[in-house]
Amino acid sequence: MIRTVATKPFDDQKPGTSGLRKKVPVFQQENYVENFVQSIFDSLDGFRGKTLVLGGDGRFYNREVAQKVIAIAAANGFGKVMVGHGGILSTPAASNVIRKYKAFGGIILSASHNPGGPHEDFGIKYNAENGGPAPEKLTDAMYARTKSITEYKIAEIAPVDLDTIGTVKAGDMTVEVIDSVADYAELMEALFDFDALRKLFKSGFRMRFDAMHAVTGPYAKEILENRLGAAAGTCRNFKPLPDFGGHHPDPNLVHAKHLYDEMMGPDAPDFGAASDGDGDRNLIIGKGIFVTPSDSVAMLAANAHLAPGYKDGLKGIARSMPTSGAADRVAEKLGIGIYETPTGWKFFGNLLDAGMATICGEESAGTGSNHVREKDGLWAVLLWLSILAARGESAMEIVTKHWAEYGRNYYSRHDYEEVDSARANALVDELRAKLGSLPGTAVRGLKIAAADDFSYHDPVDGSVSQKQGIRILFEGGSRVVLRLSGTGTSGATLRVYIERYEPDQSKHGLDTQEALADLIAAADDIAGIRRHTGRDKPSVIT
Question: Which residues, 6 or more positions from 331, have their beta carbon under 8 angstroms from its beta carbon?
Fold first, then answer.
């Protein structure tokens, strides 16, 4: 039986960078989930009888929302829902399942790297048939629908047993509960030389992978320990928990400091890594050295040919605008295209689909390739392991040799989290108003060469995305970028990106914050960060 339920719009269902993210109690409001899911389906055409992929990162409220999505999908005419075992699929695994089984699209239940729990964060996003996040024109249509929705359809069906792999009927629709890990592990075996990686671990190579009680735990356990023979205990915190063990599942030097401390210690393993809530981000730390996400993109691109899946070379490299220019120098040497996009993985999708790019990366610890249409944390770890195995060198040696060849991009991101939205918007508005007067002036002895609000012209579909981040470019290649993030759920997050290019190898050993000190001070002088935010220092420095 299908019920049509009368409802009223909510005024806060505008999707951000990666779908709709709010606190759990917001999603628990009557009809809140139903309204948004129905608005997604109302914005789509041609899905009757087709397959929908469904999965999430296992955070609090994941199972309940999964049941709602299944019932609404059944009422709206989908022929089949493929759902991960226990309602769990990592974001890159979901992208792979959509692509492998030629599904119509997928719904991913995740707030990515944000905390989980009864009073923490939840999220819903839609991925299109290419496996990538919905493009802006589609999310705009969804938002428009949320503002006018008057009813939703839902099937009165018994809850689906998400813990038993197999196929069941849900009304006229089929629900297939699939092994969350199997398809993804098979894809990784096709891209990387697992025999070479087994030899690496058999040689005594030691690694630490922290899954942060998040979704990559079962994937890492199966691939690293079971298939590649890494020592038992290599994977820590590998059991996904609804509240991520009470921790913040963001793989950075603040929330994974224990891993950093271990990798800098006297008995450090050879290699350390971590991933986030939904498995699309990565943290890379070699023995004695942290590899910044921006550097990691460049180094993976420079060495990707050492893995079988990339032996024929790269078509191009794409990076988000705030990501450092380190990858640009690799692209120049390889003679391939380099594409600078706004923040948000959906902007890479067109380039990947058009065959213009092979590896993509963001400074926010997201790296991926054309194997799926999402960033992929465990993939980045496996590519790093493949490079270490092929070169027979440590991460420290690979990093320092790369800097010697290409120069070093000193780079840092300062996050001011949960800033009052009005204050954050006032900062941005004031800065935008004076962009035209900045070029030619000097701050802290640094001469400003250019200043703008980044606009992106998509080379594939011709679309234009404006106001994607304010750039202050200094003579000599240094820059400061400021933007408000779309991934938080409370107030506004101001992100400040600071970068200095240093070609002189003798100056590659400086502390990053010291190397950037004058630029950090200049950013505050120009934008009035302390004055507007009321903060003396960032919430997080990465």
Answer: 301, 316, 317, 337, 338
Nearest to 125 by CA among 20, 38, 26: 20
User: DSSP letter at 92?
Assistant: H
Query: What would the DSSP string read from start to end of 198-239?
Result: HHHHHTT--EEEE-TTSTHHHHHIIIIIIIT-PPTTSEES-S
With b for 16 or more beta-carbon neighbours within 10 A and e for fewer, the 131-143 pattern comes to bbbbbbebbebbb
- Residues marked active site are found at 112
- Measured distance CA(527)–CA(533) in Å, rounded: 11
Task: Centre a 10 Å sphere on the Cβ of residue 77 and count the other Cβ atoms it contains.
Answer: 15
Query: How far from the centroid of its chain's Cα atoms is residue 205's Cα?
Result: 28
- Please state whether beta strands 173-178 and 80-88 pair in parallel, antiparallel, or not at all (unpaired): parallel
Q: Could you give phi then psi for residue 353, rounded to 5 degrees?
A: -65, -35
Structure tokens given for 335 = 């003679």
Tens-place pLDDT, residues 358-374: 999 999 899 999 999 99
Amino acid found at 141: A
Residue type, 380: A
pLDDT confidence bin for 474, thresholds 50/70/90: very high
Structural element, H or E, at residue 414: strand 408-419
Nearest to 259, CA basis, from 205, 206, 207, 210: 210
Tell me which H or E stretch contains 325.
none
State the CB neighbour count (10 A cutoff) for residue 455.
12
- 35-66: per-residue pLDDT in tens? 999 999 999 999 999 999 999 999 999 999 99
Give rounded-to-5 percent helix, strand, coil for the chain.
Answer: 35, 25, 40
Q: Look at residues 377, 208, 403 and name the one whose alpha carbon lies nearest to residue 299.
A: 403
Please indicate, yes or no, whether the overall pTM of this predicted structure exceeds 0.70.
yes
Would you call 380 helix, strand, or coil by DSSP? helix
Contact 372, 95 (CB under 8 A): yes
- The pair phi, psi for residue 337, each rounded to 5°, is -70, 150
Residue linked to tokens 């990366």? 361
